[in-house]
Amino acid sequence: MTICQLPPSVALITRRSLLIPATTMGSQITASSLPQLLEHDTCVKLAGIDVDGILRGKLVSKKKFLSIAEAGFGFCSVIFGWDMHDQTYLKELKVSNAENGYRDILAIPDLSTFRRVPWEDNVPFFLVNFFDPETKKPIAPCSRGLLKTQLDKVHAKGYGAMAGAEYEFYTFRNPNSDSASPAGFLLQNPPHQLPSLTEGMFGYSLNRPVHNKDWYYDVYNTCARFSCDIEGWHTESGPGVYEAALEFGEVADMADRASLFKYVVKSVGINHGITPCFMAKPKQGLPGNSGHMHISIVDGDGKNLLARDTTDPDAKWNDIAALSDLGRHFLAGLLEGLPDIMPMLAPTVNSYKRLVENFWAPVTVSWGLEHRAASIRLISPPTSKPGATRFEVRTPGADSNPHFVLAAILGCGWRGVEKKLEIPCPPLALGQDTGGAGDVGERLAKSLKEATARFMRKDSIAREIFGDDFVDHFGGTRENEVRLFDEAVTDWEMKRYIETV
Fold first, then answer.
1. Residues 45 and 123 sit within 8 Å (Cβ to Cβ)
2. Cα-based torsion angle of the residue sequence 84, 89, 90, 93 in order, rounded to the nearest 10 degrees
3. Among 320, 376, 358, which Cα is nearest to 437's?
4. DSSP output for 92-136
5. d(CA 229, CA 233)
6. Residues near 395 by Cβ (< 8 Å), separated by ≥ 6?
7. Domain 160-498 falls in which CATH fold?
8. Cα gap 207→220, rounded to integer Å
9. d(C-alpha 221, C-alpha 198), whole Å
10. The CATH number of 43-139 is which of 3.30.1330.90, 2.60.40.1120, 3.10.105.10, 3.10.20.70?
11. What is the spatial distance between Cα 280 and Cα 288, in angstroms, rounded to a whole number?
12. Which of 104, 134, 330, 484 could potentially form a cystine with 74 if both were Cys, beta carbons 3.0 to 4.6 Å apart?
């Protein structure tokens, strides 16, 4: 294996004796071209994405796949009726429940998502979309369908949206060399006692990756071969913490690649006895894992529509002097909607352990030019080129579903454009932090329970943007998560109270 693979535009993906240029993958594939494309294959892997951003799928024979490639096939709806540990929700939800028998929903492969899984003998791989079998409309909690609905609003104006994703994650070493299975050694070893891949705080280190260079380069190269290319890849500040910035691209494709990036990292880790952890806050007293998203709007020719043609000398704040009117409305929509869509950005109980003061994580409705303490960092001239003007939404954690995050960003931002909203608060001054005395911006929810209540309330912006069916379903899944946590007895409680009370 070479240290750095060629970019996807010129890379070759090998399947036994078959060489397929990466440029033939994606939009050029049609149902009629599938028999030739899969000529040397015997099976196909299919996967959809549940509300937690987890890939759920199966392996099917080539014969089966060719018969359902256009019309789709039945997929048990229970993946929307149970949680991430396959326990059915305590409160049954509309899409999938005992009353409807956890009926099948319609799964249709998206041929444009074609890839080959390099760590599984290059088996063909496709993502699927989920539809109601009767109405043929996307089901409310379908991750890819929800993002498409928001993107369609932008497309209706002849515009497009571009995005970039950055993920931080901790890595832990398997202390039992006899078993590389994460499930096995997590059962044998308390998770909080697993040794980190490297120790100490050493962000952007050139030396630390050398200690595990086979894994380090395997992740990078496998991402390239699986068409979820990494743009930047380095150590972050924390024991065994790494950060990957994925290649910038079209929003829907970016969301897919972000989901598949986690799949790659976890799969490659198995072969190296390494378990990656995308929890928002794995370790008390250390920084958490962020999942920052960058977003921009472009016209049909690819021109950045957030950039102003000429600097506005009369701008209300210098921070937005180079930001277009459309960009200002988009920013206003993000700021106004942020408190109402928090479960989509911070979906777990653990998410809110990251969103605390003094840990480089945003905790208020806030923004600023090149301000890394704000929830929304504006990147524009004079610190960048006009064509690179964008918003970095810094609230999401690495535990979030990238399709929901980008749908929330687009939905809120575009609502601001349609309503011509005005930016509701001044920018943070350089050096001004968002923590402490509540002197800047509205404090975002401190818990999943609080965030979910606001998300689900009758007049929430989330309901306005996404509709009742989605809010009731996803909100119901978050209520389930909160209830399970409320009933749990934690190690902290045992340690604190076992002897003293």
1. yes
2. 150
3. 358
4. --SSS-TTTTT-EEEEEEEEEEEEEEGGGTTEEEEEEEEE-TTT-
5. 10
6. 338, 342, 345, 346, 355, 362, 375, 444
7. Creatine Kinase; Chain A, domain 2 (3.30.590)
8. 17
9. 21
10. 3.10.20.70
11. 5
12. 104
C-alpha dist (Å) from residue 48 to 104, 113, 279, 497 = 14, 11, 21, 44
Helices (H), 234-369: 251-272, 325-337, 342-345, 351-354
Portions of the chain given CATH number 3.10.20.70: 43-139
Packed helices 402-419 and 143-155: angle between N→C axes, nearest 10 degrees: 30
CATH 3.30.590.10 placement within the chain? 160-498
Cis peptide before 313 (omega within 30 of 0): no
Q: What is the pLDDT of residues 288-305, one digit of tens each?
A: 999 999 999 999 999 999
- pLDDT, tens only, 324-370: 999 999 999 999 999 999 999 999 999 999 999 877 789 999 999 99
Give SS3 for 275. strand
* Residue 305 one-letter amino acid: L
Reported confidence tier of residue 183, pLDDT bands at 50, 70, 90 = low
Q: Are 269 and 235 in contact (CB under 8 A)?
A: no
pLDDT 10s digits, 57-108 = 999 999 999 999 999 999 999 999 999 999 999 999 999 999 999 999 999 9
